[in-house]
Write a structure and sequence with these properties.
Elements: H1 8-26, H2 32-51, H3 60-89, H4 102-117, H5 119-144, H6 162-167, H7 189-209, H8 211-216, H9 220-226, E1 229-230, E2 233-234, H10 238-266, H11 273-283, H12 285-288, H13 293-318
Antiparallel strand pairs: 1-2
Helix pairs in contact: 1-5, 1-7, 1-10, 2-7, 2-13, 3-4, 3-10, 3-11, 3-13, 4-10, 4-11, 5-7, 5-10, 7-9, 10-11
């Protein structure tokens, strides 16, 4: 039997592991102050949405009827688009390779296997990845402190794409659709660690590289890692960063694949829907890479942050189903 439910701590460790890939790949070129503020806003939105839900997410068709079925279909299509887009982020772990989709395809294959095993199994892997990624990133931060030019950390104007890029942190909020076993206090500590880690990565990257170079580099955190020195000697730490980013990307893709399975189950689909979604995403990776960031951010805000609490309220108004 696949493990289909999450504990509260596993849920948010899974979110943290998935979001760490976005923070490392997409946010280090932004001003650290705006990363801190924007990531905190995203986490507050996600925490608010989660607080309005119980361990079991509401079924959109049951709560909203025909409109709920249509919304579930739209959420399913959007999540497949997000899965294809995020598969392209895997290339940021190995920027020297170029725009090769092989790593994205490989991680999608693993995510397809994870969707079949169930979100509980994927979240268990996410809990391990969460600790390893946090340790690796903190180690990189400590090694880079000595090379920071503190004048590079002065506040800067807001970049035009900052809001859309920061909104990508809402993508792992799809975790609210995954069933839970119980509520336990303390699980959301991983959620609130994310703004601190994301801002710290952005600050050290800009402090070492300069804000202009960090904003222009395709993967500024990777470029920063190439300049890390220990006892005056440049260390080759890029493989550690590549490992951390690859593990985070796997968690992100498996989370979205499990969400596809959960949404498809609400529509009566079978146990292979998440796997099929991964194959569709693999075929759509190239066009999905050009998807507007505002579309991804707006879709996550609607389908992952606003819609589940609304459906939960409607379900509570309807009351429990009549006894047979």
């Amino acid at each position: 039997m696949p493990d289909t439910s999450l504990g509260e701590k596993s849920r948010w460790a899974f979110y943290f592991a998935a979001a760490s890939a976005i923070a490392a790949a997409a946010l280090c070129g932004l001003s650290w102050l705006w990363v801190l503020a924007g990531a905190a806003v995203c986490c507050a939105l996600i925490a608010g949405a989660s607080a309005a839900l119980g361990p079991q997410p509401p079924s959109l068709p049951k709560a909203l009827g025909g409109a709920g079925r249509l919304l579930a279909l739209l959420a399913l299509a959007y999540t497949t688009l997000a899965l294809a887009f995020c598969a392209n982020l895997a290339g940021a772990a190995f920027p020297r390779v170029g725009n090769a989709p092989a790593l994205g395809w490989t991680l999608l294959a693993l995510a397809a296997w994870g969707a079949k095993k169930g979100p509980g199994a994927c979240a268990a892997a996410g809990g391990v990845v969460c600790l390893l990624a946090a340790a690796l990133y903190v180690g990189l931060l400590l090694l880079g402190l000595g090379d920071i030019a503190w004048a590079n950390l002065l506040p800067r104007p807001v970049e035009p794409t900052a809001a859309a890029k920061l909104g990508l942190l809402l993508l792992p909020a799809a975790v609210v659709y995954l069933p839970g076993r119980r509520q336990r206090r303390g699980g959301r500590k991983w959620l609130w660690a994310l703004p601190v880690l994301a801002a710290a990565l952005a600050a050290v990257t800009q402090g070492v590289l300069t804000p202009t170079l960090a904003a222009a580099a395709p993967v500024p955190l990777y470029l920063f890692t190439q300049s890390v020195r220990l006892a005056g000697v440049v260390e080759r730490l890029e493989p550690l960063l590549s490992v951390a980013m690859t593990m985070g990307c796997f968690c992100l893709l498996s989370l979205l694949a499990c969400t596809i399975q959960a949404l498809a189950a609400q529509l009566g689909a079978g146990p292979w829907a998440g796997t099929a979604g991964c194959f569709v995403a693999a075929a759509a990776m190239s066009p999905a890479a050009a998807a507007p960031l505002w579309l991804l951010t707006g879709g996550a805000l609607i389908f992952y942050v606003a819609l589940p609490p609304f459906a939960a309220r409607q379900a509570r108004r309807q009351g429990p189903p009549p006894a047979p």
